Here is the input.
Amino acid sequence: MQESAFFQLSTSTTLLLLFGFYGLTFLMTLSIRQRNENVDSYMVSNSAVGFGLSAASMIATWVWAASFYASATSGYRYGLSGPIHYGLWGALMILFIYPFGRRFRELAPEAHTLAEVIKARHGSSSQLIMAVSNLVGSCISLMVNFTAAGALVSVLSPLNFTQGVLIAGSGVLAYTLWSGFRASVMTDFAQLIAMIGSAVVIIPLIFINAGGSDMVMENLWRLDAEQSNFFSTKAILEQGAPYFIAVLAYAIGNQTIAQRLFAVREDLIKPTFLTATVGYGAVVIGLGMLGLLALFTGLEPVDGNMNNIIPQMASTYLPPFGVALFFILVVGSLSSTADSDLSALSAIMMTDIYGKNIARGKPDPQKMLWWGRITMIVATMLGVILASLKLDILVMLVFVGALWGAIVFPVIASFYWNRITNKAFTTAVLVAVALFTVARFELAPMTGVTAVLFEFAATVGAGVVAGLMTFAFFNRTIAIIVGVLVFVGMLPFATGFLRDYTVLLSSLTAYGVSAVVCVLMSLRSNERFDFDLLAKRVRSFQDEDAMLRSGQATPAAAKTAES
Here is the structure.
């Protein structure tokens, strides 16, 4: 079934498609360029984005390069259930974040970053933990998208990997640099329309050209016992469960999601997230089927690199116009998330590094804008450099998501329970990250008492995940009951078993340890936090600047004076 040579676009066609795509995108953003830029508009569009743009931006940001490459990898590795384990769980995490998101907006309606709200709730150390984790995560996300661009260009054209990475990086930076988040949202809408239109044509076309249902039936023998089982235990333990846990952390800890949460009109949060849930799931599960088709056809990834599966399928089973259409589809998907990462990174540097620390609550809006733009330039350069490492996209996703798992419980609990302290938040995250690292890289042998302790912590983590997801839609009592039942039900099976699944063990350990440490330390505290203070402490930067110019005391200054 597999051909030895793959169709490639010519150099001139490839350059025309790339420069045409990024050129048109850049021209679109010129219509929203402002001579005197507003800081709050640059970061969150003054929290006034409507339903259509918000939903499209959420889907386009979530449907990124990894949605193509990692979903296809999952289908190729795990067979029938692979695409479901990637697409469905990712979609559900969008659904589960919106109830918590509404709480964040209710408490701090003028926020720009989640770290900014954490500072108002706890203090600088907790804020920096959130900010640094997002800086690292967004840089890795940039790397993943630029890696996808390089893989795409190197397989489908005579250009090499490095040239593809450089063109994608320069193109995304060009149209995002001046208008920031507004440019990201505006282009996301157009990119999503192009992606959906292309996917509707490309996926059926590849299926038909590969042989259709007859080919599938004739090649069922290529699937091993686990791959042919829709309820494969291997797929659940190695892909489904770790990814399910990882994307919950992405939903809570990722600034690209939080930025859209703080940008959409508050009354439109629910319909926006519900629409994004359905849209993401439909698109990504469909794309993951390309990996499953590759498995049926007996395709072998070039150089053993799983990132090459989808480009190979396109070049093998699509006519020239289909390859060009597919090329734009992937470029649009990776660009929509790369520009979101740049916007997120700039917002973190503007708000959490400069605004709240370097400027000590008295930021100059013009200086903030330059901080944001310089951050985009540096981040693009760093993303291009990291992309040269050519790391496995699926592995990177699970690793970052699991690492972020250490902050999920402390963040959510901080906005519902007034006893959580800064010390409890900080200690819980640091201890959880340390133990996650020990388990993930097997720095200690997972045998004997050590393995049992980690399995116990991981089982607690499973209860925490189940409890948090229940708490999103039900009350605290029901959430606690569900969490306890999951813990008790899993404990006999987890002991002596989870140690063989390092990714899952380490991911759940991060959740379990952070929750236990945070709760125990908070119970020892006599502090009580007034949540009404958050709205007073987290304000629009333009409002604060106007207050400073008029001689009034800003909330940050008033807080300093009180202390």
